[in-house]
Structure formats: structure tokens, C-alpha cells
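2024-03-11 09:14:02 INFO receiving multi-entity request
2024-03-11 09:14:02 INFO entity count = four
2024-03-11 09:14:03 INFO echoing inputs for audit
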Amino acid sequence: MNKSLDELVNELKKKNIRLTHQRLKVLEYLTNNKNHPTVDQIYRALKEEVPSLSKTTIYNTLNYLSELKLIQVITIEDKEARFDADTKTHGHFKCKSCGEIYDFDIDIDLSTNNLENFKIEEKIVYFKGVCPRCLSKINNN
Amino acid sequence: MNKSLDELVNELKKKNIRLTHQRLKVLEYLTNNKNHPTVDQIYRALKEEVPSLSKTTIYNTLNYLSELKLIQVITIEDKEARFDADTKTHGHFKCKSCGEIYDFDIDIDLSTNNLENFKIEEKIVYFKGVCPRCLSKINNN
DNA sequence: TTCCTACTTTGTATTAATTACAAACTAATT
DNA sequence: AATTAGTTTGTAATTAATACAAAGTAGGAA
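2024-03-11 09:21:47 INFO inference complete, emitting structure
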């Protein structure tokens, strides 16, 4: 689902999860910035508004929210984790040229494999290549 | 492709890649152990036969071989990279209960998404859940 | 409103995978 | 056998992420 901030806040309230200023800010940032930010990006952006903010809090909050399935972790980069407020199953495409990460729909049924007796709980799909913008740049040179 | 050690060695020779004892041992280990080992597992296994072996060499070799597309890196675990001598596009299923990683075929065409103008070079598919062995254990308790 | 307490935040220290680097070594050719 | 470009090795550095304990606070109780 692509939930609004209000919907997310209501889910937290329903689950009796303490609604701290920091958690609200992180959720707000993620719902407003769908560009799959890293911990460091979130930290640097929020540090201005919340000067006391600690990176550990960002880690705590993001880990907690992803346990609660309110956000999604993306590890398409080997090094740094990225985060996505959109928790529906969808693919991520990483452009090897500009580094941008694009969402894409997985409209086919991925479950028809040789995994008959497996209980599938998560489907993670990452594609890598070159995005249209970078392709057109290359072609115009 | 699921290549034999000989085939891999021939590919290295063809590409004029220096055939060191260490590289051969790493390739040999990967072709004999299809259980997606980590750097540390490879290191500990080969250290006995090649006492001088350094972990940096393992990293160097694995990075080099994956650049050459002779092996595949699996980052289904956030922490540690795993390696696979099978370079054909296939999925990896991780059992959340026992940690085992299973290969599975991707027999459907994954390219029919909203990625019309993208140049797709790599398709990475990770599923997570519970494997049949663990499921039957749970059911028998 | 004030108090209380369990939960949260924060900063620092630590962990652990990976990379950087330079000196010693070696595969493959001359 | 000599040469050399490329490789291995060990140590040090990097860096994302976690552990931990002290200080702070949300939210309910009195």
C-alpha cells in the first residue's frame, strides 16, 4: 500500500506504539521522499529540524518500522540499506550509470517456480542496468 | 551456465588471466560447493590446504571473478556476501528458520513490466520464507 | 496538573565485513 | 635463468550497523 502519513500514524496508534517526535519525522520524511533514501540521507535531512537527533534513533526507528511491516528495506546496494514507505511487493531497478533507483510493477505471478512446498513470505526483485535518461545521453554523444 | 572446473580454467586461459594456485583453489571450491558459501567459509576451508592463504586474496579473487562474470554474488543476507559458481539467472530462496539458501528456476519472463525503455542487464530475485523441511518440523510438534 | 514508569533517545564504544596499501612473491614469457 | 607485470599477503583503515547505559519523555494514573 502507498499509505499517507495520517494512515501510518493511525496504525501506530492502533498498535499502541509510542508516537515520538522522532518517529513522526522519520515517517513523514519517508512518505514525502519516495526516492529510497539511505539512513545517512534521512539523518542529514532531519538533523536541521531536530538538532538533537541521533543516528542510532534513525536505525532504531527504521528497524522497528520494518519489523512492523510499515516500511520496506531495500538492499540493492551491497553497502548501505535504503528504505521505502511503499510496502507492497514491487521491483527496484538500479541504473548502473546514474545510480538512481526506480520502482516497477511486478504484474506477473512470480510464484510458479519449483518451490511447491515452500512457504513464500517475501518476494524481492532487483533489476540492474541503464535507465532511459542515461541511455539517451549515451546515444546523443 | 553450470560450468565444470575445467571449463572455467579454460575461460581464464582464453582471457589471459594468470592461473594462480589460489585462484584455482577458490574456483575449485566454488564448483564443488554449491551451497553459496561466504568469504569466511571459503577462507576457513582453503586455509588448511593453503596455509599461507590470506582473506584479502579471497576477496580479490572473488571480486575479480565476478567482474569477469565467471561467478555470481548473492547479497540475500544484509551482512555477508555469498558466492555462486552458477552464473545463469536464477532465484535464491532463504529459509528464515534454518538459514539455508535454495536455488530455484525463474521460468517466467520477468521482462514484461513497466520498464519499456530500460536496458536490463541483471535480474536478481530473492524469496524468503520457510523451507519444506522446517515446515514439516513445525507441523510435527 | 503532577507524578510515575516503561519505553525511547542519545552519544559513545564496539563489532564486523570489506577495502587500501605496500612489501614480498611468482607465473609466464624472454 | 632473468625479467617483469601482475598477484598475494598482512596490517591498517574504513564504514555501516549494533550494543549499551545514562538521560529524557510520552502517556496514563492519581
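2024-03-11 09:21:48 INFO post-check: The longest strand of chain A covers residues 119-130.
2024-03-11 09:21:48 INFO post-check: Residues 91-139 of chain A form a domain with the Dna Ligase; domain 1 fold (CATH 3.30.1490).
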